Give the backbone structure.
Amino acid sequence: MNKPDSKESNIPAPEFYDAHDSDNVCFLCGAPKYKHWREITHFGFPFTFQQCHCGIIKQTPMPNKQFFEWFFNSELFFSSKSSDSDKIWGFYDYFKDEPCRLATSRYRYKKFKNIFSTGKPLEILKIGPSTGTFLYVANQHHHHAIGCDVSTQFAKYAKDNYDVHIDTGRFEEMPYQDKQFDVIMLFNVIENIPNQTEFLSKVAEKLKPGGYFILNHVNIENNIIEKIQKNKYFLYRPPICYIYSTDVFDRVLNKFGFEIVHRYRDVRYLHLEKIFTLLGWPLPLKLSKLLKLHQIPFPIYAYPSSVTISKRIT
Ligand SMILES: [Zn+2]
């Protein structure tokens, strides 16, 4: 693995950024005119978000593949992760949250019943399916759901625990057939994609005409939590490439041939141990442990994130 040139200052090397994608490019309006949005420094090196006059917000310059490989293997990432986890999330073993993920997947499946409960088995692809809980729930209802993820660890876990299939690699490079899927879905993924044009064009290509594209996004507009947390807001992290307001998000979907069908509040299940740790409430946390309620999943609205169901226009 390459190390950044300027080791002492932790500034990643220029080759970790896409020289062709900075404030000279806007994939949405094609007429870039950027102004400064946020300068972030709390990850040990400075990085910048700028906003185009069309509304889109992106990191400039844009991190490239080499950046992601470096960042996720760097001490910087592991140290910021562990210091964050002491203060914010506490100590969590990812797989320990499995009951919450399963409850969230069951909830989402029910929420999308107009699409999934027509009696016809559907071809479903979930990009970034994590441990495969949604694929499992969908297959229990006689659909054919598969995943696509860069992590081999998730693919193995999903196979061992739920007998579901996850292809390993980048979705954009997978040899899926054109118009193969009835539904393509992704959660907590869209903001991390550096080349949105390549990604969204591929989604449109691999969906059947009239097929559904389901995804969530965090709305940055009038975002109270962002206003309170400022530069510490969770979206201001090095792997976040794009940030959306709902209005811009809809224009992006329209541009790639999708029409918005429905929008929901993004409800997820969390257990009390995580909720109280997140809020920094030690007494309720102690009480919930005493009453053995701390591991029971509860539905919460992940403000201000929403789920959009869109349809590929024929
Ligand atoms: Zn623009």
The first strand starts at residue 17 and ends at 18. Residues 75-89 form the longest helix (15 residues).
